């Protein structure tokens, strides 16, 4: 009887952790100041790309611009969500909204001003981009940006969508 209870407990624990995925539940803010948990952004059954960036990071801005230039084509070919999370602190985060509006980038933007999500995912260098598969698992991670690395990113997105 004890073995059955232990086995049942282990099964329930395994299923619970499997459903949680790799994205922790950390509070971040939308550009209009509303709180949202990071785990809410990654919906089961959908592929999500999360990009960590900052307004003072030139490679970050280059990457977002490069992805923006091909984003419509990507969306025609693959069904996925793209979320850009600014790690600007509370002093510089006021620049995010105007920068995003000025660039006209078509993504969803959020603020991680306390860098809680950044720390929870062990992001140390930006830009840092991850692909989260339909089960909530991170299946690809890339740090920094060089011209053309967006092609590799999209290939990883297509792989995740096909699974």
Q: Note poorly predicted spans.
A: 1-20
Helix run count: 6
Mean pLDDT, all residues: 87
In total, the number of strands is 7
Alpha-beta content class: alpha/beta
Assembly of the depicted chains: single chain
Secondary-structure arrangement, i.e. CATH architecture: 3-Layer(aba) Sandwich
Gross geometry: globular
Tell me the Rg in angstroms: 17 Å
Summarize the helix and strand pattern as letters. HEEHEHEHEHEEH
Helix content: 40-55%
Find the CATH superfamily: Glutaredoxin
Count of the domains: 1
The biggest sheet amounts to:
7 strands, mixed
Amino-to-carboxy terminus distance: 39 Å
Question: Strand arrangement, largest sheet?
Answer: 2-1-5-4-3-6-7
CATH class: Alpha Beta
Strand residue content: 15-25%
Fill in the CATH topology: Glutaredoxin
Question: Could you characterize what this model shows?
Answer:
The protein has helices at residues 2-20, 38-41, 58-77, 94-103, 116-120, 149-162, and strands spanning 27-30, 35-37, 47-53, 80-86, 108-111, 128-132, 138-143. It has 163 residues and is an alpha/beta fold. It has a single domain (23-162), classed as Glutaredoxin, CATH 3.40.30. The protein has a seven-stranded mixed sheet. Strand 3, helix 3 and strand 4 form a beta-alpha-beta unit. The model is unreliable at 1-20 (pLDDT under 50).
């Amino acid at each position: 009887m004890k073995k059955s209870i232990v086995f049942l407990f282990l099964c329930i624990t395994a299923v619970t952790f499997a459903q949680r995925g790799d994205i922790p539940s950390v509070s971040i803010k939308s550009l209009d100041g509303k709180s949202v948990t990071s785990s809410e952004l990654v919906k089961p059954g959908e592929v999500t790309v999360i990009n960590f960036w900052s307004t003072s990071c030139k490679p970050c801005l280059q990457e977002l611009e490069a992805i923006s230039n091909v984003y419509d084509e990507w969306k025609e070919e693959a069904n996925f969500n793209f979320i850009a999370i600014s790690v600007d602190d509370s002093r510089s985060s006021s620049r995010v909204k105007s920068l995003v509006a000025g660039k006209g980038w078509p993504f969803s933007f959020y603020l991680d001003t306390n860098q809680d999500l950044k720390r929870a995912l062990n992001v140390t260098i930006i830009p840092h981009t991850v692909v989260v598969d339909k089960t909530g698992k991170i299946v690809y991670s890339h740090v920094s940006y060089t011209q053309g690395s967006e092609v590799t990113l999209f290939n990883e997105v297509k792989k995740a969508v096909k699974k």
